[in-house]
Amino acid sequence: MNTSASPSEASATATPTARRHRWRVVDIVVASVVGVAAGVVFWLWGLAWPGLDTVLAFTPGLSGLLAGGWLFAGVLGGLIIRKPGAALFTEVVAAVVSMAIGTQWGPETFIWGLVQGVAAELGFAILLYANWRLLGALVSGALAGVAVAVLDTSFSSVAALSVEARTVYFVAAVVSGIVIAGLVSWVVVRALAATGALDRFAAGREARARGLGSDAA
């Protein structure tokens, strides 16, 4: 006798956590849009990088403060979609888009994007995909910063700097990941949720709940 459950029965018996973590079509679409938009920002950030790097040249390694401009996609995607794999997906899409447009770093952009995406994903994973508040954003951004710091100080032109300069770069990149990728992404999601743009996502529903609570008070 065939005792296997039908897809509808399997869905009905799935745990709340499994249902919450299952990707919907709208999740894929929005994560892709976020990734593409972030990829354009990555490309523009790359164009601005030489000038910004020159401004920070008074302290060798301080250019690590610019790293967050290439890290926010994963954190932003994770905070909006709130599903396992969202941070990795959006960061990789952003890297591919910036590479397709014509980033000056060529194919290695994909490798950086992949590693940064894994690190941003890990930030949410170690919190069991249960903290989508500021803490989750900061942890994800910090780990993405660590990832790019390791890559840049090992395999890019930064590796040729002195130990002191590489140390400055490493710390600066982590700080940039925390502030730009973590804090700024969290602020952006809250702002989007307040406009109603995220009403189909948990972030939007939470924003509405906070608003109703304020009205009731």
Features of this protein?
217 residues, mainly alpha, 9 helices, globular, ABC_thiamin-permease_prd
What does this structure look like?
The chain crosses the membrane at residues 25-45, 57-81, 88-105, 111-130, 137-161, 167-189. Pfam families: ABC_cobalt. Keywords: Membrane, Transmembrane, Transmembrane helix. It comes from Microbacterium marinilacus. It is a single chain. This protein is mainly alpha-helical and 217 residues long. The protein has one domain (21-216). Helix content is 73%, strand content 0%. Helix 3 (25-55) runs antiparallel to helix 4 (72-81) and helix 8 crosses helix 9 (202-216). The longest helix is centred in the last third of the chain and has 33 residues, at 163-195. The N and C termini lie far apart (58 Å). The relative contact order is 0.13.
Topology, element by element:
Elements: H1 7-13, H2 16-21, H3 25-55, H4 72-81, H5 86-101, H6 108-125, H7 134-155, H8 163-195, H9 202-216
Helix pairs in contact: 3-4, 3-5, 4-5, 4-6, 4-7, 4-8, 5-6, 6-7, 7-8, 8-9
Shape: globular
Specify the biggest β-sheet.
none
Give the domain tally.
1
- What's the pLDDT, averaged over the residues? 91
Task: Quickly give the structural class.
Answer: mainly alpha
Count of discrete alpha- or pi-helical segments spanning 4 or more residues: 9
Compute the gyration radius: what is it? Answer: 19 Å
The run of helices and strands is HHHHHHHHH
Low-pLDDT parts are none
Query: Hey, roughly how much beta strand do the residues contain?
Result: under 5%
Write down how many β-strands occur, each being a DSSP E stretch of 2 or more residues. Answer: 0
- Helix share of residues? over 70%
Terminal-residue CA separation: 58 Å
Organism: Microbacterium marinilacus
Keywords: Membrane, Transmembrane, Transmembrane helix
Protein name: ECF transporter S component
